[in-house]
Amino acid sequence: MAEDTNDAARQQVAAKVLETADQLARLLKGEKVPEADLTPTPDALLFIARDEQNRAEAAIFEELVDLVLPELKLMARPVRNMYATREGDPHGDMATILAFLGSQPVRHQQAEWLDVPGERLDGLGLHVGVPKDVKEGETGVLLDRDLWLLTDGRLVEVCCVGRWRIVSKRLHLQRSIITTRVIEGHEAVNVFPLDGVLINLRGYLHRDDALMRLEPGSNLAERRERFDALLTEYTRLMKTRTEGLRRAGDSPA
Amino acid sequence: MSSDDQKTSEEKDAEREAVAQRVEQTSNALESLLKEVGALSEGYDPGAFDPTTVLYDKHEARLQAEAAILEEACDIVLPEIKLVAKPIRAAFSEPSENLAELETLCGSLAARHRQADWLDVPAFHLDGSTNFLGAFTDAQDGDTGVHTSKAYYLLVDGRLIEVHALGTWAVIGNELRDVRRTIVSSREMTPKEVVGEIHLTDLFMKLRLSLHLSLKGLEGQHVPDLRERRARFDEILTQYTTLVQRLAEGLRRVGDSPG
């Protein structure tokens, strides 16, 4: 069962089911039922188009992921390391948080892929209120949802919950993984905006550090070229789309 | 030295220029030093063209164009939304077992955010969901866990609001129970921020639904120019669908291009 179900789509399906059930009941009673209108509604057509866009984006994303994997392997660190509390909250109580999280997160924290090296491609983080309107001693919640690319090519989503506190103008964090799962490319590009992910991915091909000079991946120049060719074409499509959006917005009411 | 407020715009410009020159000189000196110690290869060119800068610009332009469309779409549906809107706070009031413990855990800032005035203004739910984080996939009898919620609302006064919530669930027998939840943050958003967070497709689908409500409560209510507004909404939606279809075709061609 999908956990992030679109409400509008769900309501539409529910309405359609009720309508069909009603027509069936009337048919069984021998009543005449008008023929169903099978013309797709404008929003149904949009839903289909969006699904096609998602699949096409996923195909490009997966090729770009393959292009950067050799360099990613040089820099990757186990996923779990990222979530170790680096700055403990001297006034906090981690036991309270762990008790609050419940039994299921404990199992998720044992996922084998958390010990596989990876790089974080994107994150949808929420450090509530930080840093715009916080005061000394203030406390709050953080909710993070991260996308990881493992060195074996798997894509992993990690969600964590935690607390923060401002002590002597410094942010102290406590957080813990609550769920993690392996996801497909189309799920990744649906949740994490592709533009940001592509910008991060390109960075792995263009780092000029000691590791890359000592152990360059094979065909680096060709892979860079292919990556930029795909990225440039993708950007061109985005430009065309934006021009179209402006025209749609400017059309006479 | 005079304070910032007392400086003329020319003085401020001269200071900015001086700082920019110092930054460039420092950057060049640093690059030479790194090359001297072998930390940068000769072929490395930090000034080489980076196509992601163009992508970033196009991303911003797309968000602005989508925001303009969202604003018009919201204006179109506002008369119907006013008839069915309910305060946001009501959506987060149940269930509430051991709510005080949860609220304490969420901290002082969350407590302030729960006092936001807009939570009591009637609103229409635009998008969002509660993520039960594995409860549906691998939870067993007796398991407990956490859920997070993110929701976007259009208030009857036209403001756009984001709400985040946190709560817990429990599996008892075959039943998944939503035990408690509380709002942990809430903020007013611009249309551009909203389209940066939610696909315009999802917003269109929910907004269109509001123009086609057939609730009994709407009978006899005054909804001006409903037919015209429905037609305009579908016109925008159809144009947008065409753009998405073309984009999908273009993306497929890019993906199929020889490597």
Give an account of the 3D structure.
- The complex is a heterodimer of chains A (253) and B (259).
- In chain A, 32% of the residues are buried.
- Chain A has 253 residues and is an alpha+beta fold.
- Chain A has two domains: 2-39; 46-244, no CATH class.
- Chain A has helices at 7-28, 42-75, 79-82, 94-101, 104-108, 185-191, 194-205, 210-214, 220-250; strands at residues 77-78, 117-127, 139-150, 155-167, 170-183.
- Chain B has eight helices and five strands, in the order H-H-E-H-H-E-H-E-E-E-H-H-H.
- Chain B has helices at 9-36, 51-84, 88-91, 99-113, 135-138, 191-197, 200-211, 226-256; strands at residues 86-87, 122-131, 144-155, 160-172, 175-189.
- In chain B, helix 2 packs across helix 6 (191-197) and helix 2 (51-84) packs parallel to helix 7 (200-211).
- The radius of gyration of chain B is 26 Å and the shape is extended.
- At the A-B interface, helix 1, helix 2, helix 4, helix 5 and strand 3 of A face helix 2, helix 4, strand 2, helix 5 and strand 3 of B.
Question: TL;DR of this structure?
Answer:
The complex is a heterodimer of chains A (253) and B (259). Chain A is α+β, with helices and mostly antiparallel strands.
Oligomer: heterodimer
Q: Largest sheet of chain A, described in full?
A: 5 strands, antiparallel
Show unreliable segments of chain B: none
- Anisotropy-based shape of chain B: extended
The count of β-strands of chain A is 5
Q: How is the main sheet of chain B built?
A: 5 strands, antiparallel
Residue fraction in strands of chain A:
15-25%
Low-confidence stretches of chain A: 1-6
Order of helices and strands of chain B: HHEHHEHEEEHHH
Taking the alpha carbons of the first and last residues of chain A, their distance comes to 41 Å
Mean pLDDT of chain B: 84
Structural class of chain A: alpha+beta
H/E element sequence of chain A: HHEHHHEEEEHHHH
Largest interface, with Cβ-Cβ < 8 Å? Answer: A-B, 87 and 86 residues
Count of domain modules of chain A? 2
